[in-house]
Amino acid sequence: MPQSSLTPLWGFLAALPVAVGAWLLVTGLLSTLSGWPTLAATFPGGPVPPGNRLRGQVLGLGPVRENNVTIVVPTTQGLYLYAVVLFRVRRRPVLVPWPKVRYLESRQLLWARWHVLDLGGVTTLRVRPDLLPVLRSHGVAVPSEALPPPRSQ
Fold first, then answer.
1. Phi-psi region of 35 (alpha: psi -120 to 50; beta: other; left: phi over 0)
2. 42-62 as b/e: b if 16+ CB within 10 A
3. Which DSSP state fits 120?
4. Which residues contact 131 (CB under 8 A, 6 or more apart)?
5. Among 146, 150, 145, 125, which residue's Cα sits nearest to residue 58?
6. Which of 153, 136, 34 is nearest to 91 (CA)?
7. pTM for this model (two decimals)
8. d(CA 57, CA 8)
9. Mind listing the pLDDT tens digit of every residue in the chain (153 residues)?
10. Continuous segment of H or E residues that includes residue 119
11. Which among 47, 66, 44 is positioned nearest to 56, based on CA atoms?
């Protein structure tokens, strides 16, 4: 094989560790800013429990915005949170007991509406309205006016 045909391959192989390192650095930094490591130290989660895995319900953690990164599993013990594989740097699973999950407020910008929860005084969690009935069914005090309207069949 001529040397010139290997040049793109060597360039790719040289750039790969840099790209992986940058990914790990950025995801680790965002995890720290969100408060996830402190949350995991306060409320360790262990293995993923059986139950309904709710995807796409978390919009952000602390000041960090996210989109489909955190998966929610409501359990009898509490709200279990874990990250998808590509974002697990410094994000061990979390199990916040239900008495430590507190509804704070509803927010809206144009047509987008979301709700803010306090997780044991450690950080906040921004969620979609569809998660509120699940939280309420587990004893979280969610105001009636915050609940989404029932869907027609």
1. left
2. bbebeeebeeeebeebbbbbb
3. T
4. 54, 57, 72, 115
5. 125
6. 34
7. 0.86
8. 41
9. 555 566 777 777 777 787 778 877 878 888 888 889 999 999 999 999 998 999 999 999 999 998 889 999 999 999 999 999 888 888 999 999 999 999 999 988 888 889 999 999 999 999 999 999 999 999 998 888 888 877 766
10. strand 112-119
11. 66
The structure tokens listed for 21 are 């390192």
Q: Which two tokens stand for residue 57?
A: 């319900």
Alpha-helical (H) ranges within the chain are 3-34, 36-42, 132-137
Query: Looking at the DSSP assignment, which residues form a beta bridge with residue 70?
Result: 83
**Lookup result for tokens 């040397």:** 3
